[in-house]
Specification:
- There is one protein chain.
- The protein is α/β, with parallel strands linked by helices.
- It contains twelve helices and nine strands.
- The chain has a nine-stranded mixed β-sheet with strand order 4-3-5-2-6-1-7-8-9, sandwiched between helices.
- β7 (204-210), α8 (217-229) and β8 form a beta-alpha-beta unit.
- α2 (16-49) packs parallel to α12 (313-417) and α7 (191-199) crosses α8 (217-229).
- The structure holds guanosine-5'-diphosphate.
């Protein structure tokens, strides 16, 4: 069934690198937390028994408890984030839906996403929406209708609507991938704000182009700004609507090589974010709409080609899967580095600091113990001295008494003789 198939593919997915690393670092931090708690209790006890640690030191130890707890909270929330950009109607929402294997985001004419939409996994099988600045969970049976309604509303273009979708419905959501759909780069003048608010923590960017036209200045400009703010962003380029090329098979190859060359030049020569070889692995020719249809058919138990739009379905379908594989490898490796490297070095420095503080306290305890021993030794010496003195005195006294007795005896016998 679909569930077990999802589960199997999930196990082999490169996303597991992130999932396992997250579990591992969370476990390690769990141990660090225990260690910090134990140490703090021990330190506080030391303070009451003998004033070996002072107030400042105790406060420092307690500050580690809070620090570690804060890091643990961030760690539990860490995820992999992918953001989609491109002109309106190039198919950004369709690509996300195809990856999610379900039509979650509204797409098509009249459903232009005019704000940022984030899709993330929810626990407990719940599906709901949250708009920016509100804690209210808008619970929905049919999320599509609600999302459609939201798109009609006049929301600020740089605001964020969060869509929570049951994790178990899609392996990418289950493995902590968060999708961000953006309004078209052609409709906004606030690209800078967008980047600051929604992109700085993205692990991967996907530029969705329309394969029927060439890359526009607005699309290029956006990524120029991104690569100025982030060092070497991970960018994938999808030439979408490739199904349309089936109508003109005679020029398909030449169009493809032209687009490929332009995309590679953009990544290597203009943005300078990757070398030729890497860039070649980041450019794909797909049909999001067709892939989504194929997956919906698959979920019904039908063969995927039932979703085909045009000739050449199998090649486009493989290309989409190839994109997903490379994307998964890239996002999990990047997220492990950006999210966990920092936490692991902070964890190391916290335990290092605590160790050197404990070493210091241990040294003080040793000195304290030696001092006590010295005092004890001194006392023992004194006692021993007194004992010898006493023995001396006793011996002298004995002699004296002996002499006295002898003297008395002598006197008595003398008196008797007289
Ligand atoms: P967005 O504005 O970039 O999010 O674009 P949408 O995903 O809403 O797509 C706009 C329209 O293009 C919709 O009617 C889609 O069904 C259609 N579309 C998207 N991807 C493809 C594709 O690969 N092939 C074809 N033929 N149509 C597509």
């Amino acid at each position: 069934n679909v569930e077990s198939r999802l589960y199997q593919s999930n196990d082999k997915s490169p996303l597991q690198i992130f999932v396992r690393a997250k579990k591992k670092i969370n476990d390690i931090y769990g141990e660090i937390e225990e260690y910090v708690h134990e140490t703090t209790t021990f330190i506080n006890a030391l303070h009451t028994e003998a004033e070996i640690v002072d107030k400042a030191e105790r406060e420092l130890f307690e500050s580690y408890v809070y620090k570690v707890a804060a890091i643990r909270e961030v760690l539990q929330r860490d995820h992999m984030k992918v953001a989609f950009f491109g002109r309106t109607s190039n198919g950004k929402s369709s690509v996300i839906n195809a990856m999610l294997r379900e039509k979650i985001l509204p797409s098509g004419i009249g459903h232009t996403t005019n704000c940022f939409c984030q899709v993330e996994g929810s626990n407990g099988g719940e599906a709901y929406l949250m708009t920016e600045g509100s804690e209210e969970k808008l619970n929905v049976v049919n999320i599509k209708q609600l999302a459609n309604a939201l798109c009609q509303e006049k929301l600020c273009e740089s605001s964020l609507v969060r869509i929570f979708w049951p994790r178990e419905r899609c392996s990418l959501l289950r493995d902590d991938v968060v999708f961000v759909d953006s309004p078209g780069v052609d409709v906004s003048a606030n690209l800078d704000d967008w980047i600051d608010n929604h992109c700085l923590n993205a692990d991967v960017f996907v530029l969705v182009l329309n394969a029927e036209s060439t890359m526009t200045r607005a699309e290029k400009q956006f990524f120029h700004t991104v690569s100025q703010k982030l060092s070497k962003p991970n960018i994938f380029i999808l030439n979408n609507r490739w199904d349309a090329s089936a109508n003109e098979p005679e020029c398909q190859e030449s169009v493809k090589s032209q687009h490929t060359e332009r995309c590679i030049d953009f990544l290597t020569k203009e943005l300078k974010v990757s070398n030729e070889k890497e860039a070649a692995e980041r450019v794909f020719f797909v049909s999001a709409r067709e892939t989504l249809q194929a997956r919906i058919e698959e979920a019904k138990g039908n063969p995927p080609h039932m979703g085909a739009i045009a000739e050449g379905f199998q090649i486009r379908y493989f290309e989409f899967q190839d994109f997903e594989r490379k994307f998964e490898e890239c996002i999990s490796q990047s997220a492990v580095k950006t999210k966990f490297q920092q936490h692991s070095s902070r964890g190391k420095s916290v335990s290092g600091d605590m160790k050197s503080m404990l070493d210091n306290i241990f040294e003080r305890i040793t000195i304290f113990r030696n001092l006590k021993q010295d005092q004890k030794n001194l006392l023992t010496e004194r006692i021993q001295g007194t004992e010898t003195q006493m023995m001396q005195v006793t011996r002298e006294m004995k002699m004296k008494i002996h002499n006295m007795v002898e003297e008395v005896e002598e006197k008595v016998s003398k008196a008797l003789n007289e």
